[in-house]
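Troubleshooting entry. The earlier prediction with iron/sulfur cluster gave an output that would not parse, so I re-checked the input for stray whitespace and re-submitted. Clean input:
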Amino acid sequence: MQSDHTAYKRIKDISRDEFILPGTTVCAGCGGLEALRLAHKVLGNNVVFVNAAGCFTLLALFPYSPFKGSWLYTNMASAPAGAQGIRDALDILIEKKRLRPEEDLKVIVLAGDGSTYDMALSATSGAIYRNLDFYYFCYDNEAYGNTGMQMSSASPLGAKTTTSIPDEQSPMGTKFHKKDIFEIWRAHKPPYIATISPRHPVDLSEKFRRSMQFKGPKLFIALSPCPTGWLYDPSHSAKIARLAVETGIWALKEAVFGETIHTYIPSKLKPVEEYLSVQGRFSHLFVPVRQDETIKKIQDEINYYWNHTEIQK
Amino acid sequence: MIRIRFHGRGGHGMKTAGRIAGTAAFLEGYYAQDFPVYGAERRGAPITAYTRISKDRILERGIFSEPDIVIIADESLINDPAANPLQGVTKKTITIINTMVNDIKDKFSILGIVNTIDATGLCLEIIGKGSAVSAALGGAACRIIGIIQKDNLINAVIKELKNINLPEELIEKNVEVAEKCYEILSPIIIQHGEDIPDSPIETITLPYQYPTMSSPSVFSSGNIIEKKTGGWRIFKPVINLEKCNKCWICFVYCPEGVISLDESEYPHIDYDHCKGCLICYEECPVKVITVEREIETW
Ligand SMILES: Cc1ncc(C[n+]2csc(CCOP(=O)(O)OP(=O)(O)O)c2C)c(N)n1
Ligand code: SF4
Ligand code: SF4
Ligand code: SF4
């Protein structure tokens, strides 16, 4: 199936080709891997990943690679700079006719939220400013996963991480708000930004397909349910991804040159409790004492978002 | 000195098992040392933990390759070259394996004394989950060495599981599991292996290599398929193809991409690589996927 020409309308439009081979050492049930696997089906084989240190470094562990295409490993702060180097090299090779245009590669940064929201943000801002032609795939597991689930600026209010353990002083766990990386990117007005979820494979595929028409920076923030860090049974990854969207905590949207539209609007938002109560990282909000105030705060923020944002479809 | 080496997969809790043994020995009045070693891998990949217990101060440091006791949390590790749990096992070694396979000693030609225990089964029965077997195998280790009273094992389990923020009722269940394992097994007299000779310190000088030689580059594509991750499973998903409606849901949601569709669109699972996350089981809209306890992966 040639995905480039398919408009994704139903689940059976998804390509049957696999681009990431099994055998990797990421955790069973990793939601981020699921999102990347689906994305790769749309992007096709001519890609080079520029990976910032994180869980997904474990996809390609020497001497093994799950990819048919190429992969470059960088440290956490510099994947966008690595992408610039590769893009420039490819452009020069094509110009000097040492690479045929059809052999060109899509340059894709692959990074966790720690790099995306924190460490590589300035390098990313620079790359967007220079209008670098690249894709940025952030698998957002809302913590520094690979080093043991420390809090990142993507960790949501009220979540327990290994550096925001609920105690008497801050019983809610993380007391900061998740940084709005979508809006930070949007302020740069790049051609394409989208949020995606592994439980919405058609929406995800369609967004990648649409983004491919643009030259310049393209961002994808993939909600990445993480059984290891979010403390739930691996079999629930898809269910949790669905609840994130149905409760409105993860809005599915895209912004083309800064104009936002929502690609899926839940007809009626489910209470956020349904999402929180199935994950160990929020269990302290329910036992031994129910922290009504924090749960309400989280709910109010979601309500505020859906009532006060201009939601266009 | 008693040297115990624990082998498991990330998520089995072997670091905690090693700590439970160390802490229990400490509470009993011994000197103890315990620590894990793992690579960059995540949950499911092999890890090793080490515990030293001694009446005297322990001056030895680092990992050891000649254990008195080897504890293996999952029999699929035995043939995994990345884990190599039988390394250094001699006629004097005691090996405890969490497994339901009976003739495991002969099957893998394991030297020394081999005891098996169905720790996963016990955890499933008492805790309701079979993934973490730390208390079970920590309890097993404490019993085998014969110098630790049950009270101190229980206190060690509580202390270590509190440390990792487990809720109280889960700790209670883990204590029950540890006690059960303690009761099932009997102490074994440990015969120490050869004394490890002091090795002279040797300085190794690495010569300069060109980056093309010395950087970790992989030139073949997709070779990870050679690594089998099927041994990670505790449960195995089985599709009843007669009732499958070919909706593609399991194929689309399997994170590993190990479900393929044949020409007539029926799904098939590659068991060499299925990690047993059971997302397919949860998501199948007509519930035609069932789960079976994995007994012998290979
Ligand atoms: C500059 C730098 N600092 C620290 C590290 C150590 N390190 C490796 S992976 C990692 C966690 C990365 O977290 P995130 O980006 O959220 O990705 P995840 O691990 O969740 O996949 C850290 C801190 C590093 N590789 N580079
Ligand atoms: S820790 Fe989470 S994000 Fe990282 S590999 Fe495991 S499941 Fe995936
Ligand atoms: S159990 Fe998980 S890895 Fe195995 S086939 Fe099902 S979804 Fe895929
Ligand atoms: S999800 Fe169930 S019904 Fe659908 S293809 Fe898979 S096994 Fe068949």
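This one parsed fine. The first strand of chain A starts at residue 47 and ends at 52.
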